[in-house]
Design goal:
alpha/beta; Rossmann fold; 8-stranded mixed β-sheet; 3-stranded antiparallel β-sheet
């Protein structure tokens, strides 16, 4: 897909500037029109060796017993490898130094969004993708961007409410310090960008709902958000949108993702702590990895959190748990500002 003639001049006149450095320009150089190149990390030797060690006096407490209880299986268990994409977003994805784990769920969502976008008979203004607290909507947003670049498709990307990047055949243009309405309210944008060009946004819920009207129903808005109904619900109700939700991770995926976490030690103790956390607290990767890298006491945090729950918050947790029927295997989480 190419921009219309005079597109760059029109965007520059609107305050956009061509950039030739930084991670987004590096991403364009790495991914534009190229097959995504994935690498594979095998489980660390210290971890695989730990599964071979048995304690005859405490078999139930051994790492191998923990692994069997978490990963399943009556006999030997095997730790998964990790397939990942090396990206230039080192600061944006600081926990992994830019590495994005390949997930079938990311591919599922990309395929669904692309199919929705292609349906000429079902005009949509956009798609809401419910990420998960700690499962990685930012990783997903950048993976979607990389996939779009690999297909040489024009695309906007917004990592926050006042910064925007536009990728085309010539590279990257940037505009910052403005809001959605400032950037997209000018009808001259129609002359510079083809209709239904994707705009991928990864914004915090505290920044408010996306100004879908600011895209004039002209761009195809892909909004990454938290899964709770109170975020972006009005937009979903008022406009022609579809909703998708990231699935929660399996224990095996949590173990796989640990391999690209920079601060997880290659030790038996780290593996044991990770397995124990998955067993006791589930597969919210954010907390699983925090328990290992920062030795967060999740048990104490949970007691403190429950003790401080208001009646309304407790009712909200119950309501969200009941919504699991609508989103199969969807991990529910509460505010990131809580202690757990």
């Amino acid at each position: 897909m190419t921009s219309p003639a005079g597109s760059e001049d029109a965007l520059v006149n609107e305050g956009w500037r061509r950039v030739t450095d930084g991670p987004y320009y590096a991403a364009w150089r790495q991914f534009w029109g190229k097959d995504l190149d994935f690498d594979v990390l095998q489980p660390w030797k210290a971890w695989t060796d730990a599964l071979k060690q048995y304690d005859a006096h405490s078999l139930e407490d051994s790492v191998s017993a923990l692994a069997r209880s978490v990963l399943g299986g009556e006999t030997d268990v095997h730790l998964p490898s990790c397939t990942f994409l090396e990206s230039p977003w080192v600061d944006e994805l600081s926990e992994t130094k830019g590495r994005i784990m390949f997930l079938d769920d990311h591919e599922r969502i990309y395929g669904r969004v692309r199919d929705m976008h292609a349906k000429a008979s079902h005009r949509l203004e956009g798609v809401i993708i419910g990420g998960q607290g700690g499962v990685g909507k930012t990783y997903l947003s950048l993976y979607l961007l990389a996939r779009r670049l690999a297909e040489k498709k024009l695309v906007f990307y917004s990592p926050n409410k006042s910064q925007f990047f536009f990728f085309d055949t010539g590279g990257v243009l940037e505009r910052d310090g403005f809001t959605y309405s400032c950037v997209f309210s000018n009808p001259d944008l129609r002359l510079a960008v083809p209709e239904d060009t994707w705009i991928i946004t990864d914004t915090s819920p505290v920044e408010g709902e996306p100004a879908s009207g600011a895209t004039m129903g002209y761009l195809f808005l892909i909004q990454l958000c938290r899964p709770e109904d109170r975020y972006f619900s009005d937009w979903a109700r008022r406009n022609r949108t579809e909703s998708l939700t990231l699935d929660s991770w399996s224990p095996s995926v949590v173990l796989s993702g640990a391999l690209v976490q920079c601060n997880i030690r290659h030790s038996k103790e780290a593996l044991s702590r990770l397995l124990s956390t998955v067993r006791d607290f589930g597969t919210c990767s954010r907390y699983c990895y925090l328990a290992v890298t920062q030795r967060v006491d999740l048990y104490a945090s949970l007691r403190t959190y429950i003790a401080g729950l208001s009646r309304d918050k407790a009712a909200e947790i119950t309501r969200l748990a009941g919504k699991g029927i609508i989103f199969p295997r969807c991990l529910r989480s509460m505010d990131r500002t809580s202690s757990l």
